[in-house]
Amino acid sequence: MYAIVKAGSKQQKVVVGDVIEIDRLDGENGTAVSLPVVLLVDGENVTSTGLDKASVAGEIVGASKGPKIIIQKYKNKTGYKKRQGHRQKYTQVKVTAINA
């Protein structure tokens, strides 16, 4: 059994026991988290409607950071240059149960 969950602006496939990285959440390690379900697959059965009560339970494992991204802007012949960096912050969540 697996589920497709929505976390922030992204969707991910999860199975019980997986550790996934989602956009940063406020909370300490060990805090319980509930994620909404978009699609639920149990063998041959695929459920995509009526999932208002379905959820995926998980617990916060830790925090991590994504790779450093460099943004550079340049305009020819004007002397305009701009350099900016970004590093996305993530929260690692361990999936403990899929509630259908």
Distance between the termini: 10 Å
What structural category characterises the helix and strand content?
mainly beta
Global geometry: elongated
Number of helices: 0
Count of DSSP E strands?
Answer: 9
Total separate domains:
1
Tell me, rounded to a whole number, the average pLDDT: 93
Pfam families: Ribosomal_L21p
Family: Belongs to the bacterial ribosomal protein bL21 family.
GO biological process, one term: translation
GO molecular function: rRNA binding; structural constituent of ribosome
Annotate the secondary structure layout.
Blueprint: E1 2-7, E2 10-14, E3 19-23, E4 32-42, E5 45-47, E6 55-65, E7 69-75, E8 80-86, E9 89-99
Antiparallel strand pairs: 1-2, 1-4, 3-9, 4-5, 4-6, 6-9, 7-8
GO cellular component, one term: ribonucleoprotein complex
GO molecular function, one term: structural constituent of ribosome
Subunit structure: Part of the 50S ribosomal subunit. Contacts protein L20.
Features:
mainly beta; seven-stranded antiparallel beta sheet; 100 residues; single chain; two-stranded antiparallel sheet
Describe the structure in your own words.
The protein is mainly beta and 100 residues long. The protein has one domain (2-99). Helix content is 0%, strand content 66%. The protein has no helices and nine strands. The protein has strands at residues 2-7, 10-14, 19-23, 32-42, 45-47, 55-65, 69-75, 80-86, 89-99. The strands form two sheets. Strands 1, 2, 3, 4, 5, 6 and 9 form a seven-stranded antiparallel β-sheet that branches. Strand 1 and strand 2 form a beta hairpin. The radius of gyration is 19 Å and the shape is elongated. The protein starts with a strand and ends with a strand. The model has no long low-confidence stretch (mean pLDDT 93).
